[in-house]
Design brief:
With 588 residues, the protein is α/β, with parallel strands linked by helices.
């Protein structure tokens, strides 16, 4: 990633995002949280790296998959949990080697062949060597320059330390590859991991590994099981690949110059490289510039509050700070009530969906049955057997799809109204805090540009349910019946029951899917909005508290603090200009 934003070709930039972020991090007198945000921005911008975390439970084949992407056996793997330390694989700088970083801050160079000594449970049990991470450099490219694959210990590991390391890798990642196993797909912890990734909004690839362990019908069953669950958890059509990392690695090891000849892996690698070979630099520039702009706004507002508060008498400032904290407490209580209102609205949407699907499935069965019966009116014996199965399957599909579409539309509209109302109240709360600051500290804080609802959640209601054909199971049941007229009537009765049962079953699946998606997107919205509220309150309190400390200091210390404020304003102004250049750069 280029840290220079919006610079005309051929000119040396006056400043870069990384340089300016470091300057902001080093500003004296700023809250620790602000400095940490600026430091992280500088690191991301300066390193020119894009981190892709390879995540999943232990023994899912994460290291084997990374080895297949590298093209040879480099990281340790095995049939028992192996990886105990986070391993970063840096691609494409032309050099090979490893850097071992220890928990005490020291580091040492090592050969790539020594990697297992530091990252495997066998050679470094319970991480007795105190390794923080290992950075492995390989010569080959993977997408754009700066791509780093992060091989992690398993989530839900037997070791809490390893689980925490994997979670930290998730937090620091720009994209993720989640590795599931075909012979044990989608545990509860893996579902939680995917929900967390959906909340972050980055690119997620899902790899279902060990597909060579299953037969064709077994693999088809796994595909059907995962399709709806992954769509629900990720909130959009998931990028899912079914493969065998072991076969891909074996193919690569057999001929170092050939690409692995495992079709599922080939498809995964092509899509991953297409993503990583895209315009990552532009995406990172835009993201970094947006964060720089937010930091600049926070810095400018903090200085405005400090300067205004510094003109007050210390006792007056103390009183106004306490009054602001009381106002913030009132807003926090109101926000908690709004969360309950949202939860009630979401539950109401779920109840309406349930009632609509329940009545709709019963009505659909009543409407569809005469057509099913008429279509087989002249058939007997085996012909009736086959035709009933086909007719019921067609009736289920034809009846359920329109019903599902109507419910989707109603549920999505209900969610949009509930989320919009909640976000509107949040905007009122944030503005109430800023209005209180304006009145108490005699400053002018403009209305905030809060994220829109559309930016916080997606349309949740796409079930992508596969309407399974009941024909086969129905036919098996009917083949046990005597081929008589009485038996014919019994077959029709059973078929009608099957029609009602299948429609009710799919309605139940749809009800469950709606409730789960509503829960996911509402939690995501509440979390995002709560962060906006907390950051607004914290920044105002921190600025006023800083002024309070300054007023209690000596005259020379007050003058020094005013000089620091001027320095901060200068950095904020420059950051705003640079962020504005970044916004306008794609238009040139």
């Amino acid at each position: 990633m280029s840290n220079t934003v919006g610079t005309p070709p051929g000119l040396v930039p006056a400043i870069t995002v990384a340089t300016l972020a470091r300057r902001m991090a080093a500003l004296p007198g700023q809250p620790a949280a602000f400095a940490e945000r600026a430091r992280r921005l500088a690191e991301r911008s300066d390193a020119q790296r894009f981190h892709v975390a390879v995540l999943g439970e232990f023994k899912r084949g994460k290291s084997t998959l990374v080895n297949a992407l590298i093209g040879r056996q480099l990281l340790p793997s095995g049939v028992v949990p192996v990886t105990t330390v986070v391993t970063e694989v840096h691609f494409g700088d032309g050099r090979e080697g490893a850097l071992v970083v220890f928990e005490d801050g020291s580091s040492r160079e090592a050969a790539v062949e020594e990697t297992a000594r530091f990252v495997s449970e066998r050679d470094n049990p319970a991480n007795e060597l105190g390794v923080h991470r290992v950075e492995v450099r390989v010569g080959r490219r993977l997408g754009a320059p700066g791509v780093v694959l992060v091989d992690t210990p398993g989530v839900a590991s037997v070791s809490e330390r390893q689980t925490l390391a994997a979670r930290q890798a998730l937090t620091d990642s720009d994209a993720a590859v989640v590795v599931l196993s075909a012979d044990a797909p989608l545990s509860e912890s893996e579902g939680g991991l995917l929900s967390d990734l959906a909340g972050r909004g980055g690119k997620v690839f899902v790899v279902v590994n060990k597909c060579d362990h299953l037969s064709g019908p077994e693999l088809a069953e796994v595909r059907d099981f995962l399709s709806g669950h992954l769509d629900r958890l990720l909130g959009a059509r998931a990028h899912v690949f079914f493969l065998s990392a072991r076969l891909a690695l074996d193919a690569a090891a057999g001929d170092g110059d050939a690409q692995p000849a495992e079709p599922g892996f080939d498809a995964f690698r092509r899509d991953l490289e297409a993503f990583l070979g895209g315009d990552l630099a532009a995406e990172r520039d835009r993201a970094n510039a947006a964060e720089l702009d937010r930091l600049a706004a926070a810095l400018s507002e903090a200085v405005a509050i400090e300067r205004a508060a510094a003109e007050m008498d210390l006792a007056v400032l103390h009183d106004r700070l306490e009054r602001f904290r009381a106002a913030a407490d009132d807003v926090r209580r109101a926000f908690a009530e709004d969360r309950l209102v949202l939860a009630h609205a979401v539950a109401g949407i779920g109840d309406e969906v349930s009632a609509s699907l329940r009545s709709g499935s019963a009505e659909a069965a009543q409407r569809a049955w005469p057509e099913v019966e008429a279509s087989v009116s002249r058939l007997r014996g085996r012909a009736l057997d086959r035709a009933l199965g086909d007719a019921v399957a067609a009736a289920v599909t034809g009846s359920f799809e329109p019903m599902r579409h109507a419910v989707e539309t109603a549920a999505d509209e209900g969610w949009a109204r509930a989320a919009g109302d909640f976000a509107g109240r949040l905007r009122q709360h944030v503005q109430a805090l800023r209005t209180a600051a304006n009145a108490l500290f005699e400053v002018h804080l403009p209305a905030p540009a809060l994220p829109t609802v559309a930016g916080q959640c997606e349309r949740f209601s796409y079930f992508f349910l596969q309407v399974e054909s009941p024909g086969a199971s129905l036919a098996r049941a009917l083949r046990t019946v005597w081929r008589t007229e009485r038996a014919r009537r019994g077959m029709l009765v059973r078929a009608r029951r099957q029609l009602t049962s299948e429609l009710d079953k799919h309605a139940g699946r749809a009800r469950f899917d709606v409730v789960q998606r509503l829960d996911t997107v509402s939690r995501r919205l509440v979390t995002a909005m709560a962060e906006e509220l907390e950051q607004t309150e914290a920044s105002i309190v921190a600025a006023a508290a800083s002024a309070q400390r300054t007023l209690a200091s000596t005259e020379s210390q007050q003058a020094a603090r005013e000089a620091e404020r001027s320095l901060a304003l200068s950095a904020a102004a420059e950051a705003t200009r640079l962020a504005d250049q970044a916004r306008r750069a794609p238009e040139r």
